[in-house]
Amino acid sequence: MKFFIVLIAALAVSASGQKIFSLDSLPVENLDQETRCGATIEADSGTLTVPSVGQNIEPGSICIYTIHLQTRSNFRFNISSLNVTGGERDEDCSDAAVRIYALTNLVPAESVESYTFCDDNPPPTSGSFFLSGNLATVIYHASANASEDSGFTLNFEAVAFQPIPTTHESSYTSATTGLIRYPVEGEYETNRVNTWLIKTSDADANLQLDVLLERIDMEECEANGNFTVNDVCLCDALIVYEISSTGILEERERLCSRSNDTLRIEYLGPNFIIAFFTDHIDVPGQGTGFQVIYKPHEVATTTTTSQPSSTSGSSTAAPTTTTPRPPATNYSSECGGVLTGTNGLIEYKLDGSYSNNERCLWTIRTPYRSGIRLQLNSVGFESRYDNLQIYTINSTGIQDSHYFDQPVTSPVSVVLNGTVAFVLFQSDYSNTGRGMSLEFSAEEGFESGILYYEDRNTVVDAENPVTTRFPESGLYRNLELSTLVYMSRYITLESVRMNITSLDLQVGTDGSCADKLHLYHVRDPTVSPPHNNHLSRYTPVEGICQMSDVVIPDPSNVGQGIILILATDEQSRANGIEVEVDTIGLSVKK
């Protein structure tokens, strides 16, 4: 069974050797999980030592570990060393503690088993203590006065036979924005436990999040005829746990059955766990799963309460405003950005109206796939004059294209060849319409001619000129297809201007470019409407590769936006490019 929670699609390997999709960027995910202040552990026994050898845990940090037993159930724990309070008195364990919780849908939230230990409230003198079930979370709240010796060692093992083996799958991320869809298609499998540990405090300890739960379709217990209305979440359930700044775990929502509503949890702290439990009974026609979107908090304009079964928590209707542009991810509600993954979603001014003279450009990357499906779910374009333009690229430049220029109330889709696409939304100078929802997903085929990539999307204004060297150091890579996008913040007042100050790409033996730079401008067409093509090639079709191909200064290298595409072959490397980008005021306002 597949589940996707992709930001920058890197593969991590869990403790059981099973590959899972990770939300973190590639450099972070390649680190051993034990070097981070948190992990997902899949094993029937083991030892958790915090901090691990060479690890430095900042005072006051929260470390979160989820433990999935694999073939047996019920935990036996013992803590062989405990020194967490740094010598201070802490009888209520409020300053520092190790907390252990059972995660399950089989008992109410108020009945969940848990333990809290600190120096003034040590583990049992008998050594061992027990926890029911096959899923637990261990939370370490480091003291603000922690010493070099602060930490603990926890040993665990499974002690009970499991008559119906449960499949476990888990993931960990510190990304501050993301989209989770489970399963990607079809119905989910029975007898599974899936967890997603989202620990955004690694990026921002003071972050407040909005979590949206959508497309909820889970098996209902009463459909089996043996359960009361109070037991509906005993079969399949989705639970959201929040972890406070002191490491206390609280169940915020428990969902089951079906709902067409969007449930919004507001002001969630930076650390939380999503757990999905399914039983061994398969009810045909039920169970297409759920979708979760989380992002920094934004103010909602409506406050209707959702309908699914839930525990306490602040829950309102879907958001209608935007937040500052998030980092690279597979979800965006902003005017432009980078989305990377096997699927994702753009919701731009979905519940409001866009403005005149907008230019929003998103870069969508489906790593190593050869095709992208784009589905426009809804939009309220002014026909013929406002539109959504989609361009896929390869080593020669633009590969394929499509545009949507009519209002949409039911989904329409298109499949384009390519592994990376530019999505450009543009509105003209008069009349407006309703915003849009656009999904993308990778097709099954793979692109074997690309090994490396990097995508950047930068907004430029008069106060923030940009100098970019690519790569930042050393030589670029073989079989690379990377993109750099620069967009004007105020297209009616200023345009983006670029000068290429260094260009050193590989030249073939025949004098032609072996590695190539393609450059495109975003600009208004000069022909009469409809204007369905705002990208114009600036460099020759064969691309450029040396400074002899460049004019300095270049007064005509100007546009509402400028796109650079770097494409390299499999042989030899060079220094790459450097560009200076600023804005130039328009003599006539549009």
UniProtKB/TrEMBL annotation:
InterPro entries on file: CUB_dom, Sperma_CUB_dom_sf
Taxonomy, top ranks, is: Eukaryota, Metazoa, Ecdysozoa, Arthropoda, Hexapoda
Write down the PROSITE patterns for this protein, in alphabetical order.
Answer: CUB
CUB domain segment(s): 37-159, 335-443
Xref: Gene3D superfamilies? Spermadhesin, CUB domain
Compositionally biased region (Low complexity): 301-323
Transmembrane ranges? none
In this chain, the stretch annotated as Disordered covers: 301-334
* The protein's name in its UniProt record: CUB domain-containing protein
Keywords per UniProt:
Disulfide bond, Repeat, Signal
Signal peptide range in chain numbering: 1-17
Originating species: Orchesella dallaii
